[in-house]
Amino acid sequence: MSAKQYGMLIDTTRCVGCQTCVVSCKINYQVPEEAYWSSVETIGSEVMYQPTGKYPHPVLAFRPRLCNHCTDPVCVKNCPTGAMHKDENGIVSVSQEVCIGCQYCVWVCPYNAPKLDTVQNVMSKCTFCQGRTTKGEKPYCVESCPAEARIFGLISDPHSEISRLISAKHAQPLLPHFGTVPSVYYV
Amino acid sequence: MAEINLSLIVFTLLIGLCTGTFIFYGLWQFSGIPSEETSPKSSHRVMLLLLIFLGVALLASATHLGKTFRFLNAFRNPGSMIAQEGIWSIALGVILLIAFFLTFKGQKVPKVLYAVGGLVSCGLLLVCSLVYVRALGFPAWSNGVTIVYYFGSAALLGVAVVYALSVQHAEKAAGKMMASVALTAVFVQIVVTLAFALHLQFGVMYVNLPSTVVLDILRWGIGLLAPAIIAYLAWLGKIKGKSAAWSFLTCVIVGEVFSRLIFFMQGVHL
Amino acid sequence: MKKLTTSKTFKDAKITRRTFLKGVGAITVTGSLGMAGVLGGNTRQVKATEDAPIKYIHSCCTVNCTSRCHLKGHVQDGRIVAVTPGLLPGRDDYPNACLRAMSYAQRLQDPTQRVLYPMKRVGERGEGKYEQITWDEAFDLIAAKLTETKEKYGSHAASFFTMSGNLAKLAWESTTRLGATFGGTTYSTEGLMGDHGASMGMNLVFGQARGGHDTRDYMNSKLILLWGRNVADTHTSELRYIIKARENGAKVVMIDPRQCSNAAVADQWIPIRPQTDPALALGMMNYMISRDLHDVAWLKANSCAPLLVRNDDGQYLRLNGSYAVWDEKSKSIVPAGTAGVDPALSGEYVAADGVKCHPSFVDLAKEASKYTIAVTAEICGLEEEVVEQLAYEYATMKPAGIRMGQGMQRVYNSFAPFRTVATLAAVAGYIGVSGGGASHMGGTSSINPIPGVTVPDFNFAEWSNTGDAPFIEKKSSQLYNMIENDEVKFLWIAVSNFINQSPDANRVIQDILPKVPFIVNVDPFWTWTAKYADLVLPGKTHWEVWDLLVRSPWVMLDQPAIETMGESKSDCEICSGVAKRIELGHLWDKTDEEWIRTFMTSEHPAFAAFDWDKWVQEGIFTRSDGIFDPVYAFKDQKYKTLTGKFEFYTEKLKQFGQEVPSYTRMLEDPQGDLGKKFPLVCINYHDRLNVHSQHMLYPALRIVSSEPEVQINTVDAEARGIAHGDKVKVFNDRGYCILKAFITEGIAPGITAIANGWTPEQYIEGNHQNLTHLTINPVEEFISQTNSAFYDVLVEIEKA
User: Fold this and answer.
1) Hey, what's the torsion of the CAs at C76, C79, C83, C87, to 10 degrees?
2) Which of B192, B200, C147, C387 has its Cα between 20 and 30 A from that of C794?
3) Residue B183 lies in domain
4) Which of 129-188 (C) contact A at CB < 8 A?
5) What class has domain A6-186?
6) C touches A (3+ CB pairs < 8 Å)?
């Protein structure tokens, strides 16, 4: 485990499914063609924006998804080239100049996080906005969320705001049973 | 979205054919069924055929890469199953080349080479299946049943090829025995297929898998029931060895293609 | 005039020049590749120059969603590559940039989407065949047409029509100003575009069109009713405060026929039938009044409730010119406002001249009494328990705030919803009370009318001077009639996708527009409307112009962040070009930047610290007298109504039987005769994807929605054999559209919904505006003007 680990806390009770996070990431990183580095799902529903349950009491709830920058990332372990790697901040990134585009990282990732860059034919993915966060700026998805549903910070530091909130709100990671030790927590 | 990819279907089918055939051809050699005369003759052709299968399989797998010409990068993390696939494939390729070279020189392939090649084939099958077992994103695949699925398929394909070879060389005496082996392989595959179906039905998936009823019917009818009937009739001596073996092989290959189609259609990501 | 200084961000002329040339290259390529080619091409281009330094240029979003967000553009190599929220000094919690604002910046740099040159029609109207002409030719042509119109019919026969497509000062007002300087006809457009019901309702009871509570004030609420207001999608910058208030313990209830985005963060969704909002409010009032849960003291002190109304003519009783009340203490009729009286809210009294009279509250209570829980539930399509629980909670979870939305007023008798719901808040005593209110809008300018055409304190003197020509402003609701009566010989449409945003498109295209001899349309994009214009002029967007926006306490600057696309010009530049050719040049002799500089030379002390260069750099100026704490309207209980009180009793509406808030059935009533043929109500709401038509089908927004869909309840879909994703035809006697069906449990049975803004090319066939209608409403025309009843529409749906 890297000493430092950035993570995110997402409060789904605040999410209205607008996908501003998804779109800001897409546009601001110029993610090409059909690829999006993040997504939003309608909880319990196959069709986006279709609620579950029956009228007049249907339930509409959303869950944003992104790379979990796992502490034990299976994509890194299973990448044949070593292009997928974890850095000193705990951020999982792909070296596009090394990647062969086998897409096996997509297969092994329970979160479907790496995305094929269909222009360059190599993988691309959420970087936790490394370039911004090192300058003290928030990731695009955090900054753009109109509901302020996301908090970014050092989860490896037990005294950080995010660590405090994760424990106060009893936030849980998604699909923890895969053992990848994800760094994105949900309320 | 189901993960249907032609190059992966070709790759897995040819790897199954290649490894299964090598293993069972080796066993066939050990069994003493083929005569001293037919053995070298057939070995020459078989090794060439398997080399072609393996070559095409590797080409197919390379073409599915986003950056085909960077394929050498795939060996930079030898611990990964993709790199392992490459390593075991190359190992099998070397063994096939040696065997082919020996037969080309008119020599007999030593039994030890069959043994080593058989082990390498098993290793290749194992790592190929582990590629899917480790695909946590695809609950339908990420299960130990996939290993059995891979071995069962390779065994059936290998038996079918060797069955065809055996009648090719007019081994009448062996016909009945080979038919029983083929029948056994089909039953093993029926069990494996049932196990996979049960896994799909009762495993915790978190995703909705597509219905594949039509393909299932085709797969069962052409790939399992028809070969079983053919092998049984051949065993009873009701149909001729040659037509039995060839139709058995055809049905098995078609069935295994359907089986892969079904398998890849279940590739629904979490 | 001070010498103009070039802004800091634009000093490197070499870079911009190079980028411009590159851009031209891209246009040529895209011409042959189509849209997909452009997007791929753009991506490559940007990737290639990844190392170019990023400059930040600020702008203010000018789209009419009411947020007016300060945006920070990340400009690299002459292109906006990213958009993030700009700072709002004094309010660290407030910056916002929505998905629409971000993707808009992406689209406006796509030459295939833009009108790049002045284009003159060569084919039939609507055919889309145009030839490029020069600006001189365009200006000459317009000047000739205007002169000809003036000579033949008088200057008023030239119409200058705008909507709210660009809210920046110059962009929004230039066309109207040109019309005013020319002596042409201009329009108050709220009616036709369907926002005027809110203003009328507000004006009736509050005496002003806007007013409400800063959203942060809901931290003091126990209950928040979002009534026809999907804050999440249509006033996005305020969403976070609703969420915080909820987390602070307030119950949030979403009242909407659709389970909209905001319902996902509400505690309850109340799926009300369209147009029945007044019935629900009256039912809640009746519940309160009949159980003595209403705020008698508040009503006596601050509303017209005690004012006596004559039984004979329904007008307020006057005592020597002042309103009158019955004093319970002296048992006599005394002038309203007399100290120490205890005015009655019930009973019947006889005035000195023998005229019988009663407190106006009697009429309200009587009207409300028709709406028992059972009746209300039946009308609104709700369960009785839901209505009763809502009424009980509203009355007892004090204070309870209501955020009203235009969603409930795109109906026939559109003044009723806001009027009635506000009256409900008054009956509960929540008006002018922290945590309460019945708010229309509600950002930082909550206490003021929304900043718009006239904002005091700026130096608008020269801009406001439109010369000697008469100022003619007509109701936009009358536009269709005026054209049909041959009163419009020249029509200039700007900052408006008129056809897309007006009712009854088939009528507009087939009957209305053909009667106008010459149509000019200024727009940055090739809209549906542009295709019916004789001359299409390339307008600019807010990332390309000098302009200003007011969002009190801030003044925001739009400035050129990218090179001009093609030969586009700002609305003001275009108007100036025309003005110079029709001898109005003296009123139009400034560049856009000069105008903006002039506006900011205010003597007002709040502007003392203003510095142009700093403004250009930061894009935002904060008034020194700015208020940053949450504020709310009517705290002083002063109302600009005739009675000076919260006025639910409108004597001038007695003649229409509308003196107190009331509920009327839909014009197109699903339970009436028309309902037998067309049983489904079809509303066109505003979606997360767009504000109006500006944001449809941006590449990056395809993940949100890639084509129009009609939302329909499972029950209605099953009855018609329609499956999710099926191609369906939505139709009535006025027209039809063909699109995909979106089956959902999140809409009331009997109701269907299509998002506003989609244009015909994006439909399989037709458009939702083919279904809508403009029906002149006499009461509304009396109050002000008809509001397009976009939601008062019946349709039938079948598989296509």
Assistant:
1) 70
2) C387
3) 6-265
4) none
5) alpha beta
6) yes
